[in-house]
Amino acid sequence: MATSHRPFKIFWNExxxxxxxxxxxxxxxxxxxxxxxxxxxxxxxxAKVKHWKDLGPSELMQTMDAIIGSDFFGTIPxxxxxxxxxxxxxxxxxxxSILSSPLEGxxxxxxxxxKVWIQNNLNPGPSDIFIDRDKGKYALYQNKSNILIxxxxxxxxxxxxxxxxxxxxxxxQDQLGVIEEVFKSIKKxxxxxxx
Length: 195
Ligand SMILES: [Mg+2]
What we know:
Layout: H1 7-22, E1 28-30, H2 39-47, H3 57-67, H4 72-75, H5 82-93, E2 97-100, H6 107-121, E3 129-131, E4 147-150, H7 153-161, E5 165-168, H8 177-191
Parallel strand pairs: 1-2, 1-4, 2-3, 4-5
């Protein structure tokens, strides 16, 4: 049966456009190393030292070289807060994406093993995975003022400079309350119609 003369077909198309247009909820981008994955602990174990700072410059270089081409990024343990953080973020926005820098000189291999890690460790999994060291360009991704949770001050600064909301969080020194507070104030602003 031909449906092209039905007026409600147009109505539904228009309505759908409207729904897409008003979805301005920010995307929460999560960093991996130092936030979800215990990179520094794994790195120290790999180098067989108590703390990575115990390594001299040449030992540090040797360890990095040994990681290149290996499955290291697929074997890192989760941080103490990984699961709780994922459930906190999905509770706040329903979903999240991953934004993680690749190791220099190991881009393709590192991205592969990071995706394996995500598959093995994160539930629910992310909507999107970006393995990219230029993080600032995602601050306004899809024309929203997005949220970044990351441990590196350099990334926080780049994100804020581009107009996003950045939360500095380092699993081995911070509590999840740092993130919860920001989520609460965003929700409050939204209810008050500020955002
Ligand atoms: Mg990091």
